């Protein structure tokens, strides 16, 4: 199910809608005068109005805690969205419970993105489901370019993606994977693998290995 704003937070959402109508003839006079006095260049069209609402929403969300932010976005139980985390096209995101989107992470769901449960997208991680490189190479870098490539990206359950790392569009990461810092994922990563900047250690995170890692990391070890 895609991410949608939570109706239980209607007061915040109504305030955002109120702020997002600065040029409307029905908007309060003081708001229209404010935008004219500080001389903001505003183009009142569908795309800009949609983006403006998204920008103002992010500003409003900065006053919420990580759990409140997740609840406002109608993410499943136990999810957390930290400050400056950004979800691009949240309607394309399917995510499981108990996931964490850390500070300054970018989660792009414009081409479709599925994230399992109990997965962390670490600080500064970039997860993409689109790429505009062909639009640049073909001198077609305009809004709505037909050369923007969109591919569904999938991240499994029980994964930890440490930042700064990049997951490229169309990649698939299996369950129980660890992505080390400064790694780039481009393609398929099998279940229970470790991805390093130098490559993939496929299937090494066996139950025995995880149990051993847990014992070694416990305070009593």
Q: Keywords, please?
A:
221 residues, 2 domains, 19 strands, UDP N-Acetylglucosamine Acyltransferase, domain 1, five-stranded parallel sheet, globular, single chain, 20% strand, alpha/beta, disordered N terminus
Q: List SSEs in N-to-C order.
A: HHHHEEEEEEEEEHEEEEEEEEEEH
Strand content: 15-25%
The assigned structural class equals: alpha/beta
The level 1 CATH classification of the largest domain is Mainly Beta
Q: What is the count of helical runs?
A: 6
Number of strands: 19
Q: Write the CATH fold name of the largest domain.
A: UDP N-Acetylglucosamine Acyltransferase, domain 1
Helix content: 25-40%
Largest sheet: 7 strands, mixed
* CATH A-level architecture of the largest domain: 3 Solenoid
